[in-house]
Amino acid sequence: MISAQVQLLRASRMKPWEPVLWLVAFAAPVLFPSYALIINEIAIVALFAVSLDLVLGYSGIVSLGHAAFFGLGAYTAALFCKHLSPDPHLGLLVAMGVTAVLGFVASFTVLRGSDLTRLMVTLGVALLLAELANKLDWLTGGTDGIQGLTFSPILGKFDFDLIGRVNSYYSMSVLLLLFLLARRIVNSPFGGTLKAIRDNRLRAMAIGIPVNARLISVYTLAAAMAGAAGALFTQTSGFASIDVLEFHRSADVMLIVVIGGVGWLYGGIIGAIIFRLLQDVISQITPQYWTFWIGLFLVVLVLVGRDRLLKPWTWFRRKSA
């Protein structure tokens, strides 16, 4: 019988197809230069989705206010650039630190109660931050946002460009680093305890797992990753507005995780690719009704089942399990 330690060790190893997948991803801006901006957006949204999957898929915490961390990270990066330093690396780290603090504070509100309670609490945090961003217009620019930001070159050599190639490589590099960190965590004994808490919190408490401490830790980490996604959004677009805190961002990232698969980190990446490409293609065909077709796709996905509709992705998921 295979021990739990051996299973975790096997799960933590890179599968043969994973390096190939990442090499293809990093080659995409060169192979498809006209899609570099979309690739950059996909990388940012994918990081946002991976952060949500940490709390939803691996910890069982349902959240409808994850945009609070994305938006705070975006505004932090913007304010840091405007008032302190245009260095994107420092701005990214500061944004992650600030959102980690918010995640730590907010984590105490999701430790108790039902899933419905957590939904309302997390949604309330995001709405509160959005209202603050609107009222504190002397700091955030109000409805106009913070515009005209200019960041220093990446690594002191590569300027952010309008075609989005440098932007996409920057975002994908951050995505890869944080993805590997999340992958290592979920395939560690710490990740095993998170899955035990997700499956049965009372049983996890009975066998001595510090449930509250684990949930606080993973919620703080997920907040920092979402803040990094928000910072990347600001740094690659050059502005931050109230839109980064709107409810639709929380709803979209929830849909992305559902499309790609909950409890599988690659699900966030695959879901981001499918969602963003569907949005781009359908909006060109029917600009006014593209949300209808995406909604129809989700209905079909639920009725038919992901295993039947997205067979290639489920094959990869079984191979990586």
Report on this model:
The structure is a single chain. Helix 3 (36-56) packs parallel to helix 8 (165-186) and helix 9 (189-199) crosses helix 11. With 321 residues, this protein is mainly α. It is globular. The two termini are 18 Å apart. Helix content is 74%, strand content 0%. The mean pLDDT is 82. The protein has one domain (4-320). The protein has helices at residues 4-12, 17-31, 36-56, 67-83, 88-107, 115-135, 137-140, 165-186, 189-199, 201-206, 211-237, 247-260, 265-285, 290-304, 306-309, 311-320.
Structural topology:
Layout: H1 4-12, H2 17-31, H3 36-56, H4 67-83, H5 88-107, H6 115-135, H7 137-140, H8 165-186, H9 189-199, H10 201-206, H11 211-237, H12 247-260, H13 265-285, H14 290-304, H15 306-309, H16 311-320
Helix pairs in contact: 2-8, 3-8, 3-11, 3-12, 3-13, 4-5, 4-6, 4-11, 5-11, 8-11, 9-11, 12-13, 13-14
Class based on secondary structure composition and strand pairing: mainly alpha
Count of helix runs: 16
Work out the radius of gyration.
19 Å
Query: Beta fraction of the residues?
Result: under 5%
The chain-level mean pLDDT equals 82
Task: Please outline what is shown here.
By secondary structure, this protein is mainly alpha-helical. Helices cover 74% and strands 0% of the residues.
